[in-house]
Write a structure and sequence with these properties.
This protein is of the alpha/beta class. It has 23 helices and 12 strands. It has 2 domains: 36-352, ABC transporter transmembrane region fold; 360-449 and 571-615, 3-Layer(aba) Sandwich (Rossmann fold), CATH 3.40.50.300. A hairpin with a 5-residue loop joins strand 1 and strand 2 (388-397). It binds adenosine-5'-triphosphate (ATP). The site of adenosine-5'-triphosphate has 11 residues, from helix 15. Its main location: membrane.
Amino acid sequence: MFKALIEPFRYPKLEVGHGEAKVFGAMGSRKPKAKAKNWSGTLGRIWHYLAERRAKLVLVLFMVLLSSGLSLLGPYLISRAVDDYLGGAGGRTWGIFLLILALVYLLNSLVSWLQNVWMIEVAQETVYRMRTELFAHLHRLPISFFNRRQQGEIMSRLTNDIENISSTLNSSAIQIFSSILTLVGTVGVMLWLSPLLTLLTFIVVPLMMLGMRWITRRTGPLFKERQRNMGELNGFIEETLSGQRIIKAFSQEERVITGFRERNTRIMLSGYWAQAISGFIPKLMNGLNNLSFAIVAGVGGLLAIRGLVTVGIIIAFAEYARQFTRPLNDLANQWNTLLSAIAGAERVFEVLDEETEARDEGAAVKLQHVEGAVKFSGVSFSYEGGADTLQDISFEAKPGEMIALVGPTGAGKTTLIGLLSRFYDPSRGSITLDGRELSTITRESLRSQMAFVLQDSFLFKGTIRDNIRYGRLDATDEEVEEAAKLANAHAFIMRLQDGYDRMLSVDGSGISQGQKQLLAIARAILANPSMLVLDEATSSIDTVTEIKIQEGLQALMRGRTSFVIAHRLGTIRAADRILVLEGGRLLQQGSHEELLQQGGLYSELVRGSKEAAEA
Ligand SMILES: Nc1ncnc2c1ncn2[C@@H]1O[C@H](COP(=O)(O)OP(=O)(O)OP(=O)(O)O)[C@@H](O)[C@H]1O
């Protein structure tokens, strides 16, 4: 019956939400269901982290043992007190038993508290390490990993999924262990007191097992689904917040809200059903517990009348019967939390298992100084095994030369730069820097010799000074200002309130596009790289700022090998070599004059841009 109830809700049929899949294709896509994973493997990996805190864990386990032992002692002491009283010893030993009982309960509270505190410590240290490892790993992953995923979805693994593991380790792990111990101990004592009554208590066990199995089989996938939905929602939130301008510009607010509602509904439904169904467990256990209590009381009463057991034993038994179902109940409850943590851990390990950028070859050298001679020989490249994006590219750049890359959109200009900075490696051919294969140079030292000034220069939250200093962290304030002057940024910075100490909010909002570029140029000048990559701005910047940017760029390029992705042909006439790309092929190369004489795509592009300017 439940199946019929759940199925319609697992993939809710909402009346809205078809349109936005088209507009926001990437946002709307559902990921295929994750393959069933090996749980014991995941638990084993969590254990691997926990084992780092072995000493404290042993202490916790000892406390759990002690606490379980103390819990077992309680009912036994009660039964002794009752039997001693009824047996006529009345008034002498029962008081002592009750006093010991009170001490046992008090001690048990103290032990449980200590066990909790130490386990929380172990859990917090463990997730701290996991979180740090995950973050560090993310920063070592190749660009291709980020091409495939939404940022918010990745963030969800760092926050929600880790949090799930954390809360499970904090409480559930210990609870599960203590429940198993209490269960085993209780059954042992029960068998010792009365095998017959134990058997009677056990009548309800198969029913409990069947009930739990039935429920957890249904809730497990729902918890997994909820984690996945949560990741998807985070991805959607991140994407829509960072795309605010476009959303507003295209008046897509309503569609976005509808898209959010759809994802939110999925989370609500999977969460609702997971909780609602698992909430049935305590009720079921309670009912069966009462049933077993009634059996023990009824049959136990008959046995007592016949003198086969004492009243004390029946009282102890009733208590043990309750204790026996409690850990089962706890286990069932914790099982759901554990499932949710396993689902989270699987998502964390999935990222940790992603291969980092290929390691630098053993013999890779660290570059100290670079002249800047670059040579591409027969280079081809394809993204993730697809068709070739670049085919058989060969050219040379001498130290200090300015190389311009031109060609229609999608020609492969950005991809070529990606190869030069080793975000990707070529499928065929070779790239050398100062005669040395790029693959024999450590990535870090290669990239430290390059600076990028991109169309949309990223600025971090912090002061203008900090943002320029990002180019070289040990630069003095004077050096920062010197770089800003060379970049033509000094004047506008001084006009701002607080000048160099002006705080920039996220991604530099609060200053203009052109000003952002000037700061990026200052940052690159400070880095003093041997090679430069400039992605010329396509957006129209006012003429005065543009002249300033051009002057700043001239200062920056002097004496450095520069690769300029040019969108407006006017600015690259002075280039030493222009590479004309189309469909991933290098069609032409030469200076502006040489290419004009040759005719072909370049002269067509120049003619096209002149006509556009005149129009
Ligand atoms: N991460 C990627 N995965 C798969 N294909 C990609 C990826 N990035 C780019 N491409 C494809 O590679 C080709 C070249 O793209 P590239 O960004 O290098 O072109 P471009 O010349 O820089 O274009 P534009 O002038 O528009 O920036 C395009 O067809 C593009 O669709």
